[in-house]
Amino acid sequence: MDTLAPFLVLVQLAGALVRLPETAAVGSGGSRSCSFPAVYNFGDSNSDTGGASAALSEVTAPNGETFFGHPSGRSCDGRLIIDFIAETLKLPYLNPYLDSLGMNFRHGANFATGGSSIRPGGYSPFHLGIQIAQFLQFKARTTALYIQFQQKNQELINRLPRPREFSEALYTFDIGQNDLAYGFQHMTEKRVRASVPDILMQFSQAVHQLYEEGARFFWIHNTGPLGCLPYSVIYDPSKPTNLDESGCVAPQNEMAREFNKQLKDTVLRLRKQLPAAVFTYVDVYSAKYALVSEAKHLGFVDPTSFCCGSFYGYHINCGKRKVVNGTLYGSPCNDPSRHVSWDGIHYTEAANRWIANRILNGSYYDPPVPIEGACRARK
């Protein structure tokens, strides 16, 4: 791989000039790798690096034990997919916007919070509309601070994003799972299905808001196989008749696939409506379902088991322990790396790494380019 001096590229997409992020290298095929200066992430606990822990309820040990050696705000024993994205882009791990202590936002910020949904009224108050509002405030305030202190306080400036880089950053989304999960708990399957168009309309509105603020590069995960989460399997009232060949709750996965079909259609419309933007649609569902289906062949234990907490007989969240009738519930397993599920809802670092390795090379993308080429992905 030949290294080039960084430079800016202007390309024309649908008649509009788009400023691409700095380009750092040329591969054997001659295509340049994008060098995104920052990532701004929106989502739920699948990509929350500490927002919910700072604002709602602290994420305690043994979360974080595998990689960080201590709780890191993530509902996981280690890294999330968003962390592997940051590593691949050679950027620092994203700091949560909601954590005010010692944060550095020079290369982006994470607005995701555990329990969040696209629409209001779910598990968390920090739905996507709130996350977008937080970003707009973040962008306005950090820009004002940068202009005010760029010649006066270098220490502060080193922790702030550069105003011009908001249009060069990558905007990532991993959200929608809780809209379906909350719906299945509070509505009929028919009503959940009927809610999907409105959910995605609000998602589309959020993207339009970011676009109006200068965002041009969008990385959108579809939702995973909700019915394969051990929590879903345990609490499904109609099992085993509802389980598919991989042991997942079939109606929930069918709904996730329908959501993803409509999400992909939404992305196609956004490409036409916002011709100066570049969209990458990432089929996380297929990667996660492949992992669950092949778990035992890949060296994992039964994917319906999990490492931390308990839903069997007594509901005890990861990080809590309780003795019931002489039995201790809630102790973590000895080897999280052999589990797909960390706590019955969230994936282990080992699972996240496996999924990230599959999606980051472009195998599950539309268009099929690796993340390093996401600034030039064609429609």
Q: How far is it from the N-terminal to the C-terminal residue, by CA?
A: 27 Å
Order of helix and strand elements from N to C terminus = EEEEHHEHHEHHEHHEHEEHE
CATH C-level class: Alpha Beta
Number of strands: 11
CATH architecture: 3-Layer(aba) Sandwich
**Poorly predicted runs:** 1-20, 22-30
Sheet with the most strands? Answer: 6 strands, mixed
Average pLDDT level: 90
Instruction: Count the DSSP helices.
Output: 10
**SSE class:** alpha/beta
Order of strands side by side in the largest beta sheet? Answer: 5-4-6-7-8-11
Strand portion: 15-25%
Q: CATH topology, which one?
A: Rossmann fold
GO molecular function: hydrolase activity, acting on ester bonds
Protein name: GDSL esterase/lipase At3g27950
Organism: Punica granatum
Keywords: Glycoprotein, Hydrolase, Signal
Explained architecture:
- A hairpin with a 2-residue loop joins strand 1 and strand 2.
- 33% of the residues lie in helices and 15% in strands.
- The longest helix is centred in the middle third of the chain and has 24 residues.
- Helix 9 crosses helix 10.
- The protein has one domain: Rossmann fold (3-Layer(aba) Sandwich), CATH 3.40.50.
- A six-stranded mixed β-sheet has the order 5-4-6-7-8-11, covered by helices on one side. Strands 1-2-3 form a three-stranded antiparallel β-sheet, with no helix packed on it. A two-stranded antiparallel ribbon has the order 9-10.
- It has 379 residues and is an alpha/beta fold.
